[in-house]
Amino acid sequence: MEQHHGKLRKALFAAIACLGLAGTAQAGDPSARDWIPAPPGTNVFAGYFAALGSHGFYDRGDRIEGGPSVDVQAVVLRPMAFRKLGNFTVQYELIAPAYRNTIKVPGAPHDRMTGMGDIQAGAAIWFYNNEETRTWFAWEPFITFPTGRYHGSHADASPGKNRWTTVQDFAFVKGVGESTFLEGVAEFEFYGDNDNYYGQKLKKSPSMRLMFLASTNLTPDTYVGMRYRYETGGREKINGETATPSQRSHQLAAEITHQLNDANQIQFQYIHDLSVRNGPKMRGVQLRYAYIF
Predict the structure, then answer these.
(1) Which residues contact residue 133 at a Cβ distance below 8 angstroms, ignoring those fewer than 6 apart?
(2) Residue 221, number of CB atoms within 10 A of its CB
(3) What is the pTM (predicted TM-score) of this model?
(4) Residue ranges of domains in the chain, CATH in brackets
């Protein structure tokens, strides 16, 4: 039984690491129209609340009967500032998450931790920004600082991940018709080492996520959107031995966004993993409130 729990524990890390929820990068995946820039001089303060739970746990594509379950609640604060840098529009942002992670392994006490996650800082730059043709292309690098609460003896449940990472996002947006937008995002993440993963060293290979989004207006103040995400890579090694092979996961999300007035916007999103190779298959909801000033 202890060997079985150890195998599950190794597979859990990648799952928890991918459960951040907000904005771009590993604070979560973008929502529809996130990559359409606001006018320079605009500031946005966004707050997120998310609740997700697992419905199955997988190891190398096989469902583990009687395997662990994972529950995640997250609150995220995300201030953004759009400015002019030469001839380009740029967006500076910080992402500050807090998590309550609960891992339930049959026959063992629940592993639960609550606290601040790792802070992220990013700066997007729009190399092509044509409002007349409604066409945009942007690049945003992110850095994740290992500032979150972390305990090596509770590494999987810890809100922080005890390592530096960098994310490189590339996004293309095209308007079609009167109120429809199609978007493609390619995201590449590179990971530093965690030198205290249950007292061992954990290394993770780079991962790639490809996302396709579509949205259209229902009314001038309300639009609906869909997001498909494919993730691959991210193989993990503990002390040089493979613990978790590369991911090949598929996810779908649906959302509705309403502009209350010029300054206030709300969004509801449903997230559902379609297939997962390693770790828990998650589903849940996310609420976003944005104040524009």
Answers:
(1) 175
(2) 12
(3) 0.88
(4) 2-292 (2.40.128.130)
